[in-house]
Amino acid sequence: MPTTNGLPFVSADEVRRRIDPDRARTLIEDALRNGFDPADDPARAHAHAGSGHLLLMPSTLGDWVGVKVASVAPDNPASGLPRIQAVYVLMDAATLTPRVFVDGVSLTSLRTPATSAVAADHLADPDASRLVVFGNGPQAVEHVVAMTRIRVPSSIRMVGRSPDRVAAAVAELASRGITAEAGTVADVADADLVVCATSSAEPLFDGSLVRDGACVIAMGSHEADRRELDAALMGRSQVVVEDRGAALRECGDVVLAIEEGALTVDDLVGLAPVVRGEVTRRVDRPNVFKGSGMSWQDLAVAVGVAPTD
């Protein structure tokens, strides 16, 4: 394994070799089952830097401490560089000694759909078979993969603004043995499970299309002024969030619905009680999970990919 300043470095390829979507989902769920409270997680820190900004995401889980440092440079693609780059530093909690560096982008690509899959596994109908996904980027693709690990879809519809990009996402899924096709907003009406993985600032569809008992996953942003779901849907749904505090800081779907009077803070249900069986899915209304991504999720998965020798 390569090293950086004498410490092991787990590359993106090695992350994918060491852990698959099922293992990532198990690590996320185990953290919550074992009593971790997401409210204890430090808030994500933002700092302007150079041509963009940095995101700093520290956390502590049991015997481990870690921090992800992610850079966002909007102009990078024009120079052939990634817009988002990240590295993860994993330390032992006893001495705070760095033990390993991990590719941070690959951790994000694992933990985000894994967290969504944990929520969907508890909130979607056990027989859910019709999946509709908004988005066509890497997170949309990885969310399809994650959802196929918890349910057996009879149909997978990909919805996006660019037919070419939707076709590319469908082709990528086909290369991984998953059959999907291009869909439309109207497909939401028949969906058992809807995933929103876009950068949209406005609602993607009319929330009245969503059936009672259906599950909607929204994870496309962590900004308080952007949303993928309308207030009407949020107001008539059971709304599950990773943590109330994080949702009120970063989840526009939640913040704007509260501002518009469709939702209250007391309506928000934490993901941990759902995982522990203290709250169950509703059949008389939709079940919405709004995730923004939290530091503890990166750490849970980083511990799983760290070398054991």
Defining traits:
single chain; 309 residues; alpha/beta; eight-stranded parallel sheet; seven-stranded mixed sheet; 10 helices; globular
Describe how the helices and strands are arranged.
Blueprint: E1 3-4, E2 7-10, H1 12-18, H2 21-33, E3 45-49, E4 52-61, E5 64-72, E6 84-92, E7 98-103, H3 104-123, E8 130-134, H4 138-148, E9 155-159, H5 163-175, E10 181-182, E11 193-196, E12 215-218, H6 231-235, E13 238-241, H7 244-250, H8 252-259, E14 268-270, H9 271-275, E15 287-290, H10 295-305
Parallel strand pairs: 2-7, 8-9, 8-11, 9-10, 11-12, 12-15, 13-14, 13-15
Antiparallel strand pairs: 1-2, 3-4, 4-5, 5-6, 6-7
Helix pairs in contact: 1-3, 2-3, 2-10, 3-4, 3-10, 4-5
Order of helices and strands: EEHHEEEEEHEHEHEEEHEHHEHEH
Total count of strands: 15
* Biggest sheet features: 8 strands, parallel
- Model regions low in confidence, pLDDT < 50 over at least 5 residues: none
SS element count, helices: 10
